[in-house]
Specification:
Pfam families: adh_short_C2. This is SDR family oxidoreductase. Keywords: NADP, Oxidoreductase. By secondary structure, the chain is an alpha/beta fold. It is built from eleven helices and nine strands. The strands form two sheets. It has a seven-stranded parallel beta sheet with strand order 3-2-1-4-5-6-7, sandwiched between helices. A two-stranded antiparallel sheet has the order 8-9. Helix 2 packs across helix 9. The protein binds hexanoyl-coenzyme A and NADP nicotinamide-adenine-dinucleotide phosphate. Hexanoyl-coenzyme A binds next to helix 5 and helix 7. The site of NADP nicotinamide-adenine-dinucleotide phosphate has 29 residues, from helix 2, helix 5 and helix 7.
């Protein structure tokens, strides 16, 4: 038993199938677990076969059908094949989670075009490819797609210009699909996790400054857990959310209320980027604008 099945029927999503990009680790894997716990069959996709197989073993222990597909979300043909394979193995897909993403801390003035494009390609284009490949499935099941956004979409964080641009694009894509696909009975929403403990994402973002500048800005005073994001994904996929579309739902303990100021100040004080001393722009005193 878990909090999820204490609160919701373990058969809430029985007879349905979910496809999750980036489902081999972190928040996306927790979402796969949660869907399996309430009876859904799940398919996970990512670039590393070994990682997917490890995750699939855990998921199979929960009893449902599990499929894996090695695919890079940047490759539209690979995504078509992954979605077809998943539907063959676990049945028509009624939930799609577009969760694959890449991130690193790098100041915009120092980032190569390829570095910026890589994150746009994985996060934004990857989400589009996933949605586009899944459309026929979603139309058949009158299903739902959930994108994974981030606070960087609407608050400016230092060294996250690429991620902010990608996630803002995802939010817009989500809203456009909600409008275009609503008439097919397809719902489109975005989950906006705050800092989630124990994840690759937070390992990268807290690397130089630790956790406190993040938790100080969170109204609830702590990191979230992958399971807390996953619970919202389950509710959003269920009939409980049958009239919810075009929504951007934060699971962030209230971080958005405080914004990015504390984290940005800590990065300035640390004066480091990628483990190296920065060029000084961030550690010098700011120019006085007013006398
Ligand atoms: C500057 C960097 C860089 C860094 C990579 N690049 N890391 N630039 N600083 N630290 C640049 C490279 O120099 C290269 O450009 C370009 O990006 C592509 O790098 P590759 O290593 O060839 O890319 P690839 O193998 O496709 O890997 C993608 C990746 C990698 C994003 C760079 O880190 C990855 O696979 N990440 C997946 C896991 C991950 O990031 N998880 C966290 C998701 S969390 P040049 O010009 O040099 O060739 C997340 C958090 C959101 O998204 C918000 C949390 C609050
Ligand atoms: P994670 O464990 O690194 O998850 C990212 C997953 O995406 C990995 O399983 C990775 O697997 C896969 N992936 C990366 N590039 C891919 C590609 N090109 N094609 C297919 N799969 C790819 O990170 P996480 O921290 O849990 O983040 C999960 C999601 O939550 C992301 O969308 C992230 O932006 C979002 N988010 C996280 C936080 C946080 O606090 N962690 C906060 C806000 C939003 P492979 O490398 O094997 O392909």
């Amino acid at each position: 038993m878990s909090v999820l099945t204490d609160c919701l029927s373990p058969r809430l999503l029985a007879g349905t199938a979910a496809f999750i990009t980036g489902g081999g680790s972190g928040i996306n894997l927790a979402i796969a677990h949660a869907f399996a716990e309430v009876g859904a069959d799940v398919a996970i996709c990512g670039r590393s076969e070994e990682r997917l197989e490890r995750a699939a073993q855990e998921l199979r222990a929960l009893g449902g059908r599990v499929a894996t597909a090695v695919a890079d979300v940047r490759d539209p043909e690979a995504m078509n094949a992954a979605i077809s394979h998943a539907a063959e193995k676990i049945g028509p897909l009624s939930t799609i989670i577009a969760g694959a993403a890449g991130n690193f801390l790098a100041p915009a003035h120092d980032m190569s075009s390829k570095g910026f494009r890589t994150v746009i390609d994985i996060d934004l284009l990857g989400s589009f490819h996933t949605a586009r490949s899944a459309f026929d499935q979603l139309r058949t099941t009158r299903g739902n797609i959930q994108f994974i956004s981030a606070g960087q979409s609407d608050n400016a964080y230092l060294h996250q210009a690429h991620v902010g641009a990608a996630k803002a694009g995802i939010d817009s894509l989500m809203r456009h699909l909600a409008a275009e696909w609503g008439p097919y009975g397809i719902r489109s929403n975005a989950l906006v996790p705050g800092p989630i403990g124990g994840t690759e994402g937070m390992k990268r973002l807290a690397a130089h400054i630790g956790e406190q500048p993040w938790t100080d800005g969170i109204a609830l005073g702590r990191f979230g857990t992958p399971g807390e994001v996953a619970a919202m994904a389950v509710v959003l996929a269920s009939p409980l959310a049958s009239f919810v579309t075009g929504a951007r739902i934060a699971i962030d303990g209230g971080l958005a209320l405080a914004g990015s100021g504390l984290v940005n100040r800590a990065l300035v004080q640390a004066g480091t980027v990628n483990g190296q001393i920065s060029d000084g722009a961030y550690s010098s005193p700011r120019p006085q604008v007013h006398p």
